[in-house]
Give the backbone structure.
Amino acid sequence: MEKPEGSRPAFLLLEDGTLLLGTGFGAEATVVGELVFNTGMVGYPESMTDPSYSGQVLCFTYPLIGNYGVPSMEEKDVFGLPRYFESASVKVTGIVVQEHCARPSHWASVQTLSRWMEDQGVPGIEGVDTRALVTTIRERGVMMCALATGREPPSRRELKRLLERSARYDSVDYVKQVSVSRPAAYGISDKKMVVVDCGVKESIIRNMLGRGYSVVRVPFDSPYAEIMKHDPAGVIVSNGPGDPRLCAETVKATSRLVDSGVPVLGICLGEQVLGMSQGGETYKLKYGHRGQNKPVVETTSGRGYVTSQNHGYAVDPESLSKTELKPWFVNGDDRSVEGLFHVSKPAIAVQFHPEAAPGPYDTEFVFDRFAEMMLAQKKSAAGERVRSMKA
């Protein structure tokens, strides 16, 4: 059994000057990122490998993290995808916890959280009053921070200088960093769809493979013509990190896709991209929605759902008045837009994660709705061909 980590100093400096002291675990490193928090009680392997967290230092509000260890990356599902992770590596810049578990207990665990982070070069700090830290973020908004761990970590002055010199989260094109550089194919089926990879979670691909589709994953900046070379039944514009306003190429391609009548599903960042592609605007939330307990209400039925979310931006509802997009879901807490549907084209989007991972799975029906749209569009196209032949 692995021994607990020895005492290793760690510092967390926020851009407002707040300095928190704690004990380091994971890698010995100094990093800078946007400080955000997640209210989920489980799913730290999924969260930490979610590409949407790129460039961010993640504070977990649940007091004990790492208690069921880290499973093997080598274990695959029936589609050959990692069973327990959302990408091939840790994507968060660092993590903040009240306590990390040095001696996990779980049948699937192959290593501790700290060892995994050390191997991935990601630092962590524990011994922090995460409730007070989250209160600070909720009152002042997300902010940049510097996290340092090691035997001889930098001084406060050095951390402050590092923060001042570092690029702000909103100015970095993280989507470019996490997207594939060339198309990748998954599954074999005569039903084919494309995922525009802005930082897609593996579980999104898994959901479409499980519905009988083969999937082609293309780079985020793929133009409309390149996407259509794959002859897709539909296109998913995926989740991803950073400011959606930096995704100009993706917005342009999505606009062409919608105009041409190709069924489109936007997820998280993909919803913001769909909104902008039709003339909508986005804004940054004060502290975002991140966790597995986020309530949304479907506008068409009045039903409420508990969803998994990870986003810091949203579509401005007032900007939709000049578009053919209507709110499909709204947030039960702050009434922000959580879903969109197009009134005349086969295009829908959700701000939450219907694939969940790690849960809850209440809204997986969104993928079924998308599959129905693709089938309806195929039948409509077939009918058009028959009518044109008769003419």
